[in-house]
Specification:
single chain; mainly alpha; Arc Repressor Mutant, subunit A; Tetracycline Repressor, domain 2; 0% strand; elongated; TetR_C_31; Tet_transcr_reg_TetR-rel_C_sf
């Protein structure tokens, strides 16, 4: 039988497969419905390998979820380089059009936020990741002299999360509808109010 020790190529592949499968199952079944047996069966490994590679199932679920959350935030952050606040908001809202509220990424994020209310370790990791991203947005706003940049960044990010959640109920809540509203808010905050956008 192939060596599945975590330090071997085979072990790393098993670990990667378990993490990817866990993320899929969290979105598909919900956080609390993922069991070691179901996870192992979907990943095509023996159940014992789950605990061989991870301290326990909650640790595996945390790592799977946070790997995807950090990747999503990092991709978004990279896309903000060199943008002014209005363009940054436009880029984020346009990117959010890819999420329906029912897609795997939306469901994974929703499940992770909910699970973080019950799992202190997940709460700590998620809070740190979100705060790091919020600091980046705060810095962008501060460079463009937006008043109260930290509070503004917090409200903007909460609004973006809310849009994704509400899109599960109202699929038409896309960038075409939301961007003019955000433009007016940014213009009011910066004192740069212009003629009504199209």
């Amino acid at each position: 039988m192939p060596n599945t020790h975590p330090g071997t190529d085979r072990g790393r592949e098993v670990r990667r497969r378990l993490l990817a499968t866990a993320a899929e199952l969290i979105a598909e079944l919900g956080w609390t419905a993922v069991s070691t047996r179901v996870l192992a069966a979907r990943a095509g490994v023996r159940p014992g390998l789950v605990h061989y590679h991870f301290a326990n199932l909650p640790a595996l679920l945390r790592e799977a979820a946070m790997t995807d959350v950090r990747r999503l935030l990092a991709d978004t952050e990279t896309g903000l380089d060199g943008l002014d606040p209005e363009r940054a908001v436009a880029e984020i809202l346009t990117a959010l059009d890819a999420y329906t509220g029912h897609d795997p990424a939306s469901l994974l994020m929703t499940e992770t936020f909910l699970a973080a209310t019950r799992d202190p370790e997940l709460h700590r990791e998620l809070r740190a990741a979100v705060h790091d991203f919020r600091r980046r947005v705060t810095d962008l706003l501060a460079r463009h002299r937006v008043p109260e940049p930290a509070a503004t960044a917090a409200v903007l990010l909460a609004a973006f999360d809310g849009i994704v959640i509400h899109k599960a109920l109202d699929p038409a809540l896309d960038a075409h509808r939301t961007l003019p509203v955000f433009r007016r808010l940014i213009a009011a905050a910066t004192g740069d109010e212009t003629e009504e956008d199209e």
